[in-house]
Amino acid sequence: MPTFLTPDGLRLAYHESGDGRPLICLPGGPMQSAAYLGDLGGLAAHRALIGLDLRGTGESAAPQDTASYRCDRQVGDVEALREHLGLDRIDLLAHSGAANLAILYAARHPDRVSRLLLITPSVYAVGLGITAEDRLATARLRHGEPWFAPAYAALEAVTAGRGTADSWQAVAPFFHGRWDEEARAFDAAGEKQKNHEAAAVYTAEGAFAPTATRQILAAFPSPVLLLAGEADVSGPPCVMREFAELFPKTELVVQPGAGHFPWRDDPERFVTTVKGFMDGGLPA
Question: Which of 95, 104, 227, 267 could in theory staple to 41 by disulfide, Cβ–Cβ 3.0 to 4.6 A?
Answer without folding.
Answer: 267
